[in-house]
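Query form — protein ATP-dependent DNA helicase RecG

QUESTION: What is the three-dimensional structure of this chain?
INPUT:
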Amino acid sequence: MLPLCFSISSVFPASIPEATLTKLAKLGIHNRFDLVLHLPLRYEDETRVTQIVELVHGVSTQVEGEIIHSEVMFRPRRSLICQLQDSSGVLHLRFLNFYPSQQKQLEVGKKIRALGEVRMGYFGMEMVHPKCRVAGESTPLKQALTPVYPTTAGLPQATLSKHIQAALNELELSDTLPADLLTRLKLPSFADSVRLLHNPPSDIDEDALLKRTHHAWLRIKFDELLAQQLSMRIHYRKRRSRNAPRLRALGHFTERLLQTLPFSLTTAQQKTLREISRDLEQAHPMQRLLQGDVGSGKTIVALLAALQAIENGYQVALMSPTEILAEQHYHKLRDWLEPLGISPVWLSGSLKKKDKQAAIERIAQGETQLAIGTHALFQDQVIFPKLGLVIVDEQHKFGVQQRLALRGKGDEPHQLMMSATPIPRTLAMSYYADLDVSVIDELPPGRTPVITKLVSDSRREEVLARVRQACLAGQQAYWICPLIDESDTLELQTALETHQRLAQALPDLRVGLVHGKLNTVEKLHAMAAFKTGETHLLVATTVVEVGVDVPNAAMMVIEHAERMGLAQLHQLRGRVGRGAAQSLCILLFQQPLSELARARLKIIYENTDGFEIAQQDLSLRGPGELLGARQSGVPMLRFADVTEDAALLNCAQAVADEMLCDFQQEARAHLQRWMANRQDYLHV
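ANSWER: The structure tokens for ATP-dependent DNA helicase RecG are given below.
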């Protein structure tokens, strides 16, 4: 791995007060070089003065003139109202919060420059809280646009700007990219780029500057993407240099299981299984992400991978995010494995002390080859004597440290992560570049696409009638509610209320209830009753979002669908459509809809392909929200956007490999520049 070093020249000088250093740290600024990369949010144009008569509503502009009236008014609230006059007209300035020093600055007869957004007020054109400065006849205009930086309370723009300008002037801003590479990529130097972004000239293309398409912005975004790719590729190479058990594909158990299955693997399942099997045979630890749409058959692929480890005398741990999913995995896999003489063990936090201790002992003594459970699997008292493979289901539900803790149970186990939330290609390239990725891109035969309908809450009675009709015809249905308890801020139907209401409205149906606050026994009993058909209609919170498999459930109603994210809606919808019958998902929404909610519902209505939904979700929300817990484990992007800057990302990926091979010194310098305070990201 390339070591990171840090230049003493970047350390803050002793003259900066401790209080200022604390505020800078809140902004993620820990050294002087961080100041160089603390780039402006926007710019103010103080390079020109506009005549008052030429002002445009809604546009931030600078004017210059003489104060001809200044008065503190007390209605409708205490305000300082001034009139500024130039040769073309009069403009009102209004201050709601002001100090005596400002009143003195804005006395009648003073000549000032005022910068602010122009709008129509009670007295005509006005600026509210403009930026004002005294301006004599010889006061020169600024020669560059004025940057406006992200800041925090108690750290004025002037103070921040002073420290940034000092860093720009005093630090060595040498380039970390080879000159030939810069020429080939047609990128400007790093020094020229940051200096231009902190001090753009008055004749610059402001549109390109604000949209971050200017060549200086492209250089910064490329550098950031390159640093991320370098760090991820280094981690990838480091992992491949470690030793792991070779788990050869012996076929003792895998072939026997395949012969007993009531279905055949799809072409995509066979392809991903071959990729995983090849990785397990290597002498370095596998770290592979298995992704596939809802219902694509990831579980059987993971089980066959587990059997390859078990055939070689190693143990396997399968971790799921919820007890419902863990328990379902346990029962399904136990039914498949017991004919092979393999008895899995189930471990969860809610087990009785005696049962939990028995499970822990079976694991520690090597009596069980497969342990299935929740986060209870990585507690200190759980010891795996010979852990060969860790499988993490719904990996985005877990934090990085949780996954690392489970991996730490073995010397160097292979790791397979599964996700039914498809990851767009650009996101996978950027944030999962340290993993190998396998994709199951087809559904098993016989799956009928789920019909999705958007229905206003005002038509609830029609929906009830449809549910009753379906259940009396022999089908089952889910009714999903987003909250368990009442909320004063969100007027949402709760699961408890809805269960009571539906039981009264549908007396000829058996209505069940499951939510996260039920104890495990009650939760499992409710799910078992639904699975066996004892319950017609199951009212549930989003606890059933992943993994629940009831083929006879052919209808789902989702309350307040406008409040949910696209990934969650797609996951929930995937609970139906698992049998031969045509399935229906009704998204109940309440008016009025926000623009974002309207866009989300349109996407889920028009698309059933999880990868297309994920791509559009990325465009709507950005990577931060989509990544969930993983964002605490990889360097998030501050400047680049993986959707808009896909071409730069492709280029950065290729250049990262080139630099690690041919320009290691430059790669080390580049990582020092961008990752000096984020070294822990390299160890995820």
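ADDITIONAL NOTE: Residues 228 and 273 are 29 Å apart (CA to CA).
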